[in-house]
Amino acid sequence: MKIRQWLMALAALxxxxxxxxxxxxxxxxxxxxxxxxxxxxxPRDGRIVPEGTPDLHxxxxxxILLMVAALFACGFILTYAEFSAREMPNWxxxxxxxxxxxxxxxxxxxxxxxLVVTEEIEEDYPQENPAEQQQIAQLITESAxxxxxxxxxxxxxxxxxxxLGIAGLTPILSLGxxxxxxxxxxxxxxRGRRLVDVAGNAMLASEVEEETFYSAFAQGAxxxxxASLLVVVRMNPxxxxxxxxxxxxxxxxxxxxxxxxxxxxxxxxxxxxxxxxVVEPKxxxxxxxxxxxFDPATGATVIFxxxxxxxxxLPLMIxxxxxxxxxxxFSGRVGPAWWGVRERGS
Length: 346
Prior knowledge:
By secondary structure, the protein is an alpha+beta fold. It contains six helices and twelve strands. Strand 8 and strand 9 (293-295) form a beta hairpin.
């Protein structure tokens, strides 16, 4: 019950400060046995709650705690902005948000214990009675009477609340860039760049076999770069039905697609071979996370699962030394995309 009274007193203080109210309404009490409302005044000033003694040190302590809360919240924002997703110190984010909330809680405790006058009145009040509501409003107003640095406290509370609000919205930035989407289109592939295996060895076209799954990367690029990862398979050229304009993208039937699933960004790790033609009529690339299935013969179009668009295809060429190399860049953006989910036919 006391906690609720403290919170009501703090809310009333902020509301009065914003509205500039300074008047105090006299207390009112219902007259038993009558519908009339009588005003109960004390012999001196008609107060319900005795006037408290100002506590300047308590007010400064509350303001300091609220500013500390704002600083912790700002620390959360700066930490989130400074580090990338891979390097994010989650423990530091936790310390910042916990420190901010703990400081706000400490400020409320100090405010309730040192700045609010406590008055307990045991009496049954009729509900929805305007007179009694007016009396409660006066009680709350007079409970905050010892406060002398209201502007300081309201400003500190606003700073803490604003910083915490911004900190709560900061993770929204992880949903993606608002205007500068160029980093999402960055790719290490260009004409003549060779394909290498996980050990960095260039891949000979003559060593790529049918019914075999290969992982490849861009030579000299970071293998952790999602645009560098490829899945390479060989098929019978007569079975290929690639989209228009891609007839030369699969020399000797060798195809290369992005290894990043267009549904949720998992890695394509399964190559389905047609062991049972009735249910598996042709080879397919399968994502193990949600079983999105792609047909490599038709440009990695989706034939099953939640993926919204085909895997981007990398045009290939065989250089003069017999090694596989890129003949250009991907046919589309690598990874999942919200517009791909809505445009299945893209």
